[in-house]
Amino acid sequence: MSTTYSELRAQLASLTTEAFRPELAEIDRLSTLEIARTMNGEDRSVPAAVARRLPEIAAAIDATAERMARGGRLIYLGAGTAGRLGVLDASECPPTFNTDPSQVVGLIAGGPSAMVQAVEGAEDSKELAAADLDALGVGPDDTVVGISASGRTPYAIGAVEHARAAGALTIGLSCNEDSALAAAAEHGIEVVAGPELLTGSTRLKAGTAQKLVLNMISTITMIRLGKTYGNLMVDVRASNEKLRARSRRIVALATGAPDEQIEAALTAAGGEVKNAILIILADVDGPTAAQRLKDSRGHLRAALHPTP
């Protein structure tokens, strides 16, 4: 057995996410319902673990929104489950908030094929993370989020180190205390939900915790950037029938206007929900609505009440 393997084994043994739970050693002898109840009980600890890190999460979001308001990007990097969760969160931003696909980016160690099939060894390379970021031309206006349940994944740590050297804002999201990833980032977020039901299976509670935090980072950042009006997704991209119906419902909820007025406003706005709402509420035409939103940097509330 190599020294490297021995050291890695010792590292894993020290991590909360890898801890063995003797009380669950015979879980396979329980009924399916009993196992389901046990899992459900375990999952209840995750929101509480996230709640303990809300101040750190909020500070990271404020810093992210500030950079994105200057034209920067939000870039997630991780390996395995962590990387897949980052790609998932990034891929949902264009239809939800009408962002350009290049504005929120998810990178997974090993490339797109690693989304569906493990790429062995990719997570062990800091150099691979640096090359992935260099391909994007990461810079001072960008935010880079390294994601790793263990907090020791070289790909995630390498991403944060390389991005920080390039002047980017860095966030390290892990599920163990005193992690190397959090230490390497400007904003370390350590959500410790405890040992997993299956020893070391960090797609469970750790994965749920990571998804909750990533949801917060992207959603609240977009709220800060004016991508919503109240709790309405006024920048939604109507790319299919369901979303076209949702667009009309959003305009109706925001304005209380009848269907005929909503259809006329959406036509005048070229299908843009935010513009259509402004046309109705401010009683302006399409070009005026577009100019007001441009002047307010896309914030509908500000466009409704422009300052002289």
Automatic annotation (TrEMBL):
Subunit composition and interactions: Homodimer.
Keyword Signal: no
UniProt signal peptide: none
Protein name: N-acetylmuramic acid 6-phosphate etherase
Entry similarity comment: Belongs to the GCKR-like family. MurNAc-6-P etherase subfamily.
Entry annotation: catalytic residues: 92 (proton donor), 123
Catalytic activity: N-acetyl-D-muramate 6-phosphate + H2O = N-acetyl-D-glucosamine 6-phosphate + (R)-lactate
Function: Specifically catalyzes the cleavage of the D-lactyl ether substituent of MurNAc 6-phosphate, producing GlcNAc 6-phosphate and D-lactate.
Broadest EC class assigned to this enzyme: lyase
HAMAP family assigned: MurQ
Gene3D superfamilies reported for this sequence: 1.10.8.1080, Glucose-6-phosphate isomerase like protein, domain 1
Keywords, in A-Z order: Carbohydrate metabolism, Lyase
One of the record's GO molecular function terms: lyase activity
EC number from the UniProt entry: 4.2.1.126
Organism: Streptomyces omiyaensis
Lineage, uppermost ranks: Bacteria, Bacillati, Actinomycetota, Actinomycetes, Kitasatosporales
Remarks, miscellaneous: A lyase-type mechanism (elimination/hydration) is suggested for the cleavage of the lactyl ether bond of MurNAc 6-phosphate, with the formation of an alpha,beta-unsaturated aldehyde intermediate with (E)-stereochemistry, followed by the syn addition of water to give product.
Record pathway: Amino-sugar metabolism; N-acetylmuramate degradation
Coiled coil segments of this chain: none
UniProt key word Calcium: no
Highest taxon in the source lineage: Bacteria
Domain SIS: 64-227
Pfam families recorded: GKRP_SIS_N
Membrane-crossing residue ranges in chain numbering: none
